[in-house]
Amino acid sequence: MNRPLLFLDVDGPLNPYAAKPERRPAGYTTLRVPRNDAHEDDRGLSSRRRPLRVWLNPEHGRLLLQLGFELCWATTWMDDANRWIAPVLGLPELPFVDFGDVLLQERPDGVHWKTGPLVDYADGRPFAWVDDEQSELDQTYVTAHHQGPGLLHHVNPRIGLRENDFRTLADYAWSLNTSRTTRLSTSPALQAAPYSEPRSLRDSP
Predict the structure, then answer these.
(1) Cα–Cα dist 89/58, whole Å
(2) CB-side neighbour CA atoms (13 Å) of 77
């Protein structure tokens, strides 16, 4: 049986781009993407003029893999996330949402340009979406157009994913598995393992 999807944004949740530029967050490493691989990030900013600085926490890959989701990139990096982001986090190559012509194209109704493609990609499958740009309009759209459970989880781009974010995601995955187990009388072994945050995250400021 398919696990729920976890749509992953890069800039904001994994790369806290809005943190103080002179102080790299504890536990993070610096990645610089060269100009020939420049792309427009999730804020629509081009890195053509200089290498793009990205802060990543290598612990996050392991934590994401233990949550009980099928991971999927939902970022302007698209497949480039497999080349640059996944290796630093220790993630395998992941599927990604190809946003095509709607990439960075604002909608007149105020719904984020990612929201429709993510609902289409999920196709009724339960999902969580981690991003720093969602609004109530996106939740309303998901409620109206998605036929399964959907969690839109906002992450502060100044601090990125933290302990409470992983706890929320783990609890959501666990609740989906519990509900599915109750309905189908399947084995409790299908339920997600409890989340236990590492010392490195507990001790982070």
Answers:
(1) 4
(2) 24
Encoded tokens for 135:
């609004």
Q: Which residues contact residue 19 at a Cβ distance below 8 angstroms, ignoring those fewer than 6 apart?
A: 25, 55, 157, 158, 159, 160
Secondary element (H or E) of residue 117: helix 115-122
Query: If we measure between CA atoms, which residue out of 99, 149, 83 comes closest to residue 122?
Result: 149
SS (H, E, C) 137-205: HHHHHHHHHCCCCEEEEECCCCCCCCHHHHHHHHHHHHHHHHHHHHHHCCCHHHCCCCCCCCHHHHCCC
The dihedral over CA atoms of 177, 183, 185, 191, expressed in degrees to the nearest 10, equals 0
Residues 141-150 pLDDT 10s: 999 999 999 9
Compute the 3-state secondary structure of the chain and give helix, strand, coil in percent, each to the nearest 5: 35, 15, 50
pLDDT in tens, 49-62: 688 899 999 999 99
Per the listing, tokens 């072994």 go with 189
Annotate 162-200 with b (16+ C-beta within 10 A) or e (fewer): beebbeebbebbbebbeeeeeeeeeeeeebbeebebeee
Q: Could you give the angle at the alpha carbon of 85 between the alpha carbons of 141 and 77, nearest 5°? A: 45
Report the alpha-carbon distance of residue 69 to residue 71 in Å, rounded.
Answer: 6
Structure tokens that stand for 203 in this block: 């001790």
CA separation for the pair 184, 175 (Å, rounded): 14
